[in-house]
Structure formats: C-alpha cells, structure tokens
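Protein fold
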Amino acid sequence: MATGLNSKFEEINNAVLNLVCRLYADHDFEKLESIGIPFDLAQRLVEQDRLVINRLTNYKSSLIRLEVDQNALGNLVAHLERETDKDYLINNMIINGAPSEMIVGNWGIDKADYFSRKKHLAVKYVTGPGRLPKRLRKKDRARISRYMAAYQRSARKHPDKEPGWRLLEASIETHVPLHLAWVYMKENLGNTNIGDDTWTDLMLRPVLV
C-alpha cells in the first residue's frame, strides 16, 4: 500500500513540477501566484536543480490537467520547497567536498543518487587523494580549528539552523573541504549521525590542534 501511495504522490509531484516549469517558461507569474507558488520558489525549482528538470523531461505520462485543491496544493508547495532546499544543500555540500558516506548516511539519498549528482555537477575532487584517511594529518589540524570556529560562530548566531547548513557555510568561509570535517568527526565519534546530540556536543567543543 505504501509503495502505491508513494508512486501516486510522485506522480502528483511530477505533474505539479511540470505545471510550474511550463508556467515559468511562459512567464505567467500571475498564474503561478494564483495557485500559491511564489516567483522565487518557481525560479529555484526551474533553475537551481537541473536533476529535477531532467526527471521532468523523462516523465512519459500524459499531461495531467489538475483540478487544483488549494489546501492540498499548499501542502505540495511546502513539500517542494523543503525538497528544493534539501537538494540545494546536498548539491553544494558535494561541490564543497562532502564524501558519499557523509551525505548518504544523513540526507536520505542512496549512493547511486550521490554519484549521479557528483557526475552531473562535474565534481572530481570530493574525498581528497584516494580513500579517506582514518585520522587527520598534522597539517590539517590547524585548518580544522579554523573550520570549527566558523561552525561554532554560526551555531551561536543561528541556533535553529540545520547542522548541514552550518557545515556548508563553515566550509565556504574557511575553504576547508567537507571531507576533512568528516574525518575529524569520525575520528572523535566513530560512525555517527549528524542529528545525534553527541555529535552536536562534539561540534561545539574546543578543537585541540
């Protein structure tokens, strides 16, 4: 039953995305607003994630003409906005060096999706030279100290922000690739989940260089 529901939900999502992309391409922004989709969300859906557009291109079902339920559409818009934000975060983490085990274990995508995104984004340098090391090299510890300081500033400034955004912002600010942050985390906690309280505690502790 769950599989059938998921399939139906995916079908509806594809139909809504198809409608959004068509209206956006036609510059029919008034129509987008009238069905509850603001311009900035439509823009992100269409331009930010080419993987979404590729899925739409491959969508073979006949065009579904929606009799729009305004309440249901509001829920779909909220869902699409969350998924778009998640895709944006995942893609940018990959661009900034997040290895597959960091993404797959914490953001609900499988390895095939990870490597598909990596290929699509033309990212070659992701995990550093060869396999991930078990421990940080001495020369990397000062870099991690700067990275963690940036992460902790973000945590103090935006306590409600999802940890993934802090990881990404600290990487961009300090130019430290995320695979080094992941090695640091595993070195201190082993196999962990980014949502765990123990992990959060670790990320807010001082770093010994």
